[in-house]
Amino acid sequence: MTDTFVRACALAELEEDTPKRVELEGVPIALVRTEGEVFAVNDICSHANVSLSEGEVEDCQIECWLHGSSFDLRTGKPSGLPATRPVPVYPVKIEGDDVLVSVTQES
Ligand code: FES
User: Which segment of the chain is annotated as a signal peptide (predicted)?
Assistant: First the structure.
């Protein structure tokens, strides 16, 4: 199987519960380090064209600042209205101090 992971940033660049927006192969990604793990979700809210990385992180969820839907960082599913569709989530690997994300493989 081809390895589709690409380097997103250094692990040290990610502050706990502070999302970081990166763009990988043209895909906007919100990277979040929380609860000892790193998650990658599509940065665009499924409700409107809003950057999720500008929202807050709590309980392994990222909140859209515009209308308040929160998305589970593990599954991308919204926990409440107005968003009804999940955002794509992507596999993350940590190698040394590098955070790698596979954007071609939604999980
Ligand atoms: S734009 Fe994100 S909940 Fe409305």
Answer: none
Task: Note whether 22 and 31 are within 8 A (CB).
Answer: yes
Query: Whose C-alpha lies nearest to ligand 1, atom 1?
Result: 48
Q: Is 48 in the pocket of ligand 1 (CB under 6 A)?
A: yes
CA atoms of 6 and 99, how far apart (whole Å)? 8
pLDDT digits (tens, 9 = 90+) for 70-95: 999 999 999 999 999 999 999 999 99
Write the CA distances from 100 to 22, 39, 65, integer angstroms: 12, 10, 26
Q: Can you give the pLDDT at residue 3?
A: 75
Q: Single out the residue of 35, 8, 7, 10 nearest to residue 22, CA to CA.
A: 8
Whether residue 6 has its Cβ less than 6 Å from ligand 1: no
State the distance from the centre of ligand 1 to the C-alpha of 33, rounded, in angstroms.
Answer: 22
